[in-house]
Specification:
Tumour Suppressor Smad4, six-stranded antiparallel beta sheet
Length: 213
């Protein structure tokens, strides 16, 4: 009986030592990972270290590489390049300057709609001239051939400005509402003109077909 009590006492002593050592080890580990900033500069370094440990920079690089790949992906057959007057240049965001189409859906179709909400940085008097849904580009794939159509959904209308590869420049032509127009590589479309009676474009885009060759 005395032997059993002695054994229990020894086990209890060992247990207490193990618990104490684990507690010390945990505190040391936490202190080695945690950095107390001595200045704003140290705080910034700690933030950068934390981002590196979570793979922030690796993810950012991976996204950039993926985006570069998508731009050359034949499954994404077109993109648009925003064109605009210098008077509104400061209001145009980088993400709006080039827009890549998405993948074909199960019906072999892609739709890209221009919406007012995408240009919220514009001054209100210009913004309100854009319709909630202004126009839509539709790509339709049939076998290996792809056709591209543009439809005006707006209240104020959109304009065909000609093709950037044509030597002869035509005057802007207002397109009929809700009618499908065939698009080809280099076609330029005016979403907004400087004035309703003006022939000068304020905001528009150039259509770029990736499989034009």
């Amino acid at each position: 009986m005395n032997h059993l009590k002695s054994l229990i006492s020894k086990l209890d002593s060992v247990y207490q030592r193990v618990v104490t050592n684990l507690s010390i080890l945990k505190i040391q580990t936490l202190n080695s990972k945690r950095k107390i900033p001595q200045s704003d500069e140290d705080d910034l370094e700690g933030e950068q270290l934390e981002k590196n440990e979570t793979g922030y920079k690796k993810v950012k690089v991976a996204l950039e590489e993926r985006n570069s790949t998508l731009e050359n992906n034949p499954q994404m057959p077109f993109s648009i390049k925003l064109v605009y007057d210098l008077t509104i240049q400061q209001y145009i965001t980088e993400e709006n300057k080039i827009r890549q189409s998405c993948l074909f859906d199960k019906n072999e179709k892609i739709c890209m709609t221009f919406k007012r909400e995408e240009f919220l940085n514009l001054p209100n008097e210009i913004l309100m001239r854009l319709s909630k849904e202004h126009c839509v580009i539709t790509a339709i794939k049939k076998n290996r051939a792809i056709s591209y159509e543009l439809k005006d959904l707006s209240l104020n209308g959109i304009f065909y400005l000609g093709n950037s590869f044509d030597k002869i420049k035509n005057r802007p032509r207002k397109l009929s509402k809700l009618q499908d127009y065939s698009l080809k590589h280099g076609d330029c479309i005016g979403l907004l003109m400087k004035k309703e009676t003006s022939q000068e474009m304020l905001l528009g885009f150039e259509f770029l077909c990736h499989n034009s060759s």
